[in-house]
Amino acid sequence: MSNLDRVAVPAVCGGRGFVVAEPVRELLSPRRTRLGETTEVRRLLPNLGRRMVGAWCFIDHYGPDDIADEPGMRVPPHPHTGLQTVSWLHEGEVLHRDSTGGLATIRPRELGLMTSGRAVSHSEESPRSHARSLHGAQLWVALPDRHRHADPRFEHHTDLPVVTAPGLRATLILGAVDGTVSPGSTYTPLVGADLALARGADVTLPLEPDFEYAVLSMSGEAYVDGVPVTPGSMLYLGCGRAGLPLRSDTGAGLMLLGGEPFEEELIMWWNFVGRSQAEIEQARTDWTTGSRFGVVDGYDGAPLPAPDLPQQPLKARGRVR
Predict the structure, then answer these.
(1) Cβ–Cβ under 8 Å, residues 277 and 266
(2) Which pTM value belongs to this model?
(3) How far apart are CA 8 and CA 170, in angstroms?
(4) Which residues are CB-neighbours of 243 under 8 A, at least 6 positions away?
(5) Which tens digits make up the pLDDT trace of 137-187?
(6) For residue 226, with 0-12 CB atoms within 10 Å meaning exposed, 13-18 middle and 19 or more buried, which class applies?
(7) How far apart are CA 4 and CA 60, in angstroms?
(8) 80 labelled ligand-binding
(9) Which of 237, 272, 276, 266 is nearest to 55 (CA)?
(10) Is 78 labeled as ligand-binding?
(11) Which of 66, 193, 207, 276 is deepest in the core (most CB within 10 A)?
(12) Domains of the chain, first to last
């Protein structure tokens, strides 16, 4: 998934100095932005008040959209460095192509996981023949310094492990919950899980006290640690929790996102995650001149041009503004 803003604003992220070390209930509202010609997304990270949750550094929630008579998602080939992209669907399909030769149609509750490493490019689009509805989330995970220059790779996991409890079905996207582990590759202590709450559910989900957490509401009405969350909002929970109370009277879909607080400070500009202005400038130059990022075969359209760099210097700072 690309950040398609034509005036890309740098986000300064990382470092433990702004991690909330105790449990909190901080409700984050999204910023609405366009993704291509037909898709509107609700951007939860980076947020005005918070930049990261563990290594999670970018979260878009979109849909449900009726695309029966529309082309649906169309994101042209674009570059990434220093991160992993996570494609997660509740409805519809997304056709993924990348410069490693990766090609997959991602369907609901399947994991599309691309590790950019030093450089990769990819496109995402609704298949020509597609379902009526499109609903999902696109997320990025920052890679630590020791892994961010590795070879790019793509993983497509169609059969993910599930944890169940009365009223709860949790599908493991990344990391582990209650001893059950996802097959997706991770490079920092991290967790991502899709939580389906049945009507009348009242359950406590076990957590790691050293992780910081947030819950993204995908659909329905739920109470997270007593706080009502509605679709398109995210509740930041801080650290220091051994369990998370969840309740829904009507049924709901949530995403649990968390991880060990990310120690390294970094710069996120457009679709690049780096550590210095020179590194970001070089990545932009390489994409503009057609080097380093490879070629995405099969997409019917031109690659996405890079926006202009901002006038102000890019500096790595903290996790919150």
Answers:
(1) no
(2) 0.92
(3) 35
(4) 204, 205, 206, 207
(5) 999 999 999 999 999 999 999 999 999 999 999 999 999 999 999 999 999
(6) exposed
(7) 12
(8) yes
(9) 266
(10) yes
(11) 193
(12) 12-259 (2.60.120.10)
156 is in an annotated binding site: no
| CB atoms near residue 81 (< 10 Å) | 25
Q: Tell me the pLDDT tens digit for each residue of 177-226.
A: 999 999 999 999 999 999 999 999 999 999 999 999 999 999 999 999 99
Which residue is associated with the tokens 């898709």? 39
122 is in an annotated binding site: yes
What is the distance between the alpha carbons of residues 124 and 113, in angstroms, rounded to a whole number? 13
Q: What angle do CA 138, 170, 44 make, to 5 degrees?
A: 30
Q: Which residue has the tokens 């892994």?
A: 147
Among 252, 271, 272, 267, CA closest to 314: 267
Residue 92, both tokens: 């519809």
Q: Distance between CA atoms of 87 and 115, rounded to whole angstroms?
A: 12
* Nearest C-alpha neighbor of 306 from the set 153, 74, 120, 77: 77
**Could you give the C-alpha distances from 223 to 38, 201, 250, 253, in angstroms and in order?**
32, 10, 11, 11
Amino acid at 104: A
The structure tokens listed for 167 are 């009223």
